[in-house]
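Tutorial, part two.
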Amino acid sequence: NEDGIGDLQGIISKLDYIKELGFETIWISPFFQSPQKDWGYDVSDYLNIAPEYGDMSDVVRLIHEIHQRDMHILFDFVLNHTSDQHPWFQESRSSRKSPKRDWYIWRDGQGSRPPNNWKAQTGRSGWNFDPGTDQWYYASFLPFQPDLNFRNPDVKDVMFNIARYWLDKGVDGFRLDIFHCLFKDEYFRDNPWSYHLLPKNAMAGFFQDWRFNSNQQDTIQFAHEFRKLIASYTPERMLLGELFGDNDVIRDYLGEDQKGLNLIFSWELMDLRINAGHFRDIIRHYEEEFPDPYTPVFVLGNHDSKRLVSRVGENLLFAKLLALYLFTLRGIPVTYYGDEIGMSDVHIPGKYAKDPVGKLYKWIPEFISDNLNIYLNRDRCRTPMQWDKSENAGFSKPGVNPWLPIHHNFTHVNVRSEALDEKSFLNIYKDLLFIRRESKAIQEGTIELINCPDNEDQLLAFKRQSEQEVALVLINLSGTDCIFNNKTECRHAVFQIGSHDISSEGQIRINPWSGLILST
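Running the prediction step on this input gives:
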């Protein structure tokens, strides 16, 4: 409605753009009723819509319009916690005898100290004292997001009913926010000490091994129960988990019989190194630990992390080659909005942060957090989509300031400008999605690494193969030429970034920072 805040009607108006690019599914962050202290991840009513985003008729139309385009939509389901403004929590904290007291996690302290040593994911104690009832409640993230108690069957029942409500309206499934935190140790044992100061894969951090407040066996069992609910609708409905754990734990969530969560995000590409061996190891890891029928879900960026182009130090060629890698891996690629045009982080000092994590740590100088690779102010990656070079990048009408500032590079990093440049990010993404959609080998074939002993740190080579076809992917991650002796049947280049030469004998010289796909 042109007020500078993105809304449901705005998404509907851009569905054709998403469809024409070649994407099949959208995952949308929470738009439910919320005080917006954490931009929708603090839900105060799961069955109503935040008025700044629209109303129920907009949601119904969004689902309809997506399905009309043969696309799918996942809602972001925040199961772990609610807002402290949710009527459930307001009732729960009203009295120790409240019927909903046990809907949240309440405990007596140890004198003036919290019940145990559990940390929240933001680094502070997860326990918050409530003077009204002289007890502590637990919050895995921020104090205004109290955790629900899933050991209470009433909580599980009501959340399953909420899922049914949205499934009945046609949603195709859910992305499950911080799912690994759902159940906590029933004995509330202290977490053991760890040497990790900075969070490591959300399994340890702030000098704790998060053994008793994440990845409990009950959470895995819940995942399998939720899958049964989803499967009772249609086979196409799905659950995509945001969670962290070692390989055995991830396999348990998915289930050996593939009857747990349908999919779980894979995080390895969030740690980038300009080294072919690194990307070879990622392929090897997933082929050894999660072979078919397991399906990895690869991400290069999301709403909690520095944008891709900023993470690679504005090395645009590297970022484009990463797109080639992402869309040719065995697995499902996920793209964060704006990465398909190469958007960068916007410099927003902590003192101006709207992000609650940014506000909490605004006293830490940016050069320190950046050097430690800690992302504190998530506003920087959440700025408005850059549609064109007009005022406000076409996100809102002239004279109406958008909710976050827009990067100064919007005059050339925008959808309209890039549509006219065949070598732009936008057209590279569009071409790769087209090839992926048309190629059975890339879409669903096996993957096989090819050794490059003369260029093992610079050149990445792998083959994708289905019953119908074979595709060869070559990526030169260096500033020097690389030679590849092509012994495969792939001879026809169907896509390239940069340049290459093919000799009559089949030897391929891949120029610096170049990549290509060859088919039979």
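The longest strand covers residues 459-465. In part three we will examine how such features are distributed along the chain.
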